[in-house]
Amino acid sequence: MNERNVSPDSWSYGILIDGLAKAGKLNDARDLFQKLLHSGVTPSTVAYTSLIHGLCMANSFDDARELFADMNRRGCPPSPVTYNVIIDASCKRGMLEEACDLIKKMIEDGHVPDVVTYNTVMDGLCKSGRVEEALLLFNEMERLGCTPNRRSHNTIILGLCQQSKIDQACQVFHEMEARDIPPDSWSYGILIDGLAKAGKLNEAYKLFRRMLDSGITPSAVTYNVVIHGMCLAYTLDEALELFKSMRSKGCRPSRFTFNILIDAHCKRGKMDEAFRLLKRMTDDGHVPDVVTYSTLISGLCSIARVDDARHLLEDMVKRQCKPTVVTQNTLIHGLCKAGRIKEAREVLDAMVSSGQSPDVVTYNTLVHGHCRAGQTERARELLSDMVARGLAPNVVTYTALVSGLCKANRLPEACGVFAQMKSSGCAPNLFTYTALILGFCSAGQVDGGLKLFGEMVCAGISPDHVVYGTLAAELCKSGRSARALEILREGRESLRSEAWGDEVYRFAVDGLLDAGKMEMALGFVRDMVRGGQLPAPERCASLVAGLCKSGQGGEARAVLEEIMDLAYGGKARGKAAKFVEEMVGKGYEIEDGVLKPLLSTLK
């Protein structure tokens, strides 16, 4: 053009700058733009937009913003395309406030933002969790004459599902259909996933069937979601039928599909079927990953096939699939549960040798395993080793050790660990207090147990029926039945009715019966009946038989009448009830073994 004495105009420059920018020759595009400015020709909107887009693509966003501002200074109005480019770049960098301000400026400049503009900003807002603001923009679109498209709806549906607002997501889905915008595979997939994660598995499956009926092929991800949901809410057979139908619908099962089904079989103890799926998985060209192996190891351990689990771990390593700490912990737990503590320690040693760091769960499992095996000294060593490795023991660690020491009749050491626990800033929970209270009571030190009882209540921890019952039984043994009754009444008032029953009174009543203290036992049973609870037949049988043997047939009959009035409200009590009343009334001594089956019929 220059050779022919034809000066390039703004349009010519714009075309060339656009071509250079699209070809990735950004420096050449910038040089040409500078030449354009020095020539005295005002750059066109196309030239500005092309260079701004190129700068954004090259991550030179600050330069792009400066060029956008220069546009306005030079009196070159940005076009909707220019706005879309700079808005998109702002959203990708998380500068959502700026993106929203640009939409306002765009409207002020007389431009109506198009669906691309809105989709870009709504997507950015949803990804940052600002779904309510995205919804406002979504509703604003139509008011300004911009009809939302499928992508607009999908963006909002996804954002709502990610915030567990499933009902709203369903509403937007139905609005899309009402606008004659047919949902695509992505639309269905998002909502099916959201419904499944919200536990609405039936609705998810219905939507999936509707998707198939509409002739839309689900993705492997959607199949995985539905198969996983079916494994939870339906039978495995139904999940397997769906799995088999995938190929006929043109969808190849992924490794995740196989992992889901293997996990479902393992959780049901169907290990042979799980291994058949593993073979099918490899035949299909998928390489088992750490999830596959960990799932199978967990399944084997759950049915006590620990040797097979160990062999599988070895096979996993041979196949260059590195076990995670979770994998190792699963095997350690299985070995400990089988009482094979030495082998569990070998797994720990192998972990450390391979450069893998054990975590708190590893140590907790081993501490609990040693305590169950009565090896409390080894458990204490593990606690020290854990601290030396920079791992903070948690409430599970301390509770396992306190419980183990108490069961080994090493109460002073258990108290020492309890003190260490509190000084380290780890707050004891219900199970910690219960273990130590049981330890004190087993050692005949009920006052120590009562002191801990008061401490746990002050700490805002509600004792359970085991704590109340154990303390009451120990108080009875030491002749403090009045205090025992107070404890039981306190427990009955503080615990929910379903957590309180005959089992709690058993601790106290059995202790009194064993000691031959019939009057006290009778008082406890009467208190129980008047509190609206029916003793178990064996409790009644022991008490009535004991009263009969001690010549207190009248008392025995009165107790039976109270119990039967509670159970039947004065209505006909049946032959068994009348028979028992008659025998007691005539002064017969009835053995516990005879009474128990008779009283069972009254229940």
UniProtKB/TrEMBL annotation:
Keywords: Repeat
Domain of life, source organism: Eukaryota
SUPFAM superfamilies attached to this UniProt entry: TPR-like
Coiled coil: none
Record keyword Transferase present: no
PPR repeats: 9-43, 44-78, 79-113, 114-148, 149-183, 184-218, 219-253, 254-288, 289-323, 324-358, 359-393, 394-428, 429-463
Family: Belongs to the PPR family. P subfamily.
PANTHER family referenced in this protein's UniProt entry, alphabetically: CRIB DOMAIN-CONTAINING PROTEIN (PTHR46128:SF73), MITOCHONDRIAL GROUP I INTRON SPLICING FACTOR CCM1 (PTHR46128)
Classification via NCBIfam families: PPR
Protein name: Pentacotripeptide-repeat region of PRORP domain-containing protein
Species assigned in the record: Selaginella moellendorffii (Spikemoss)
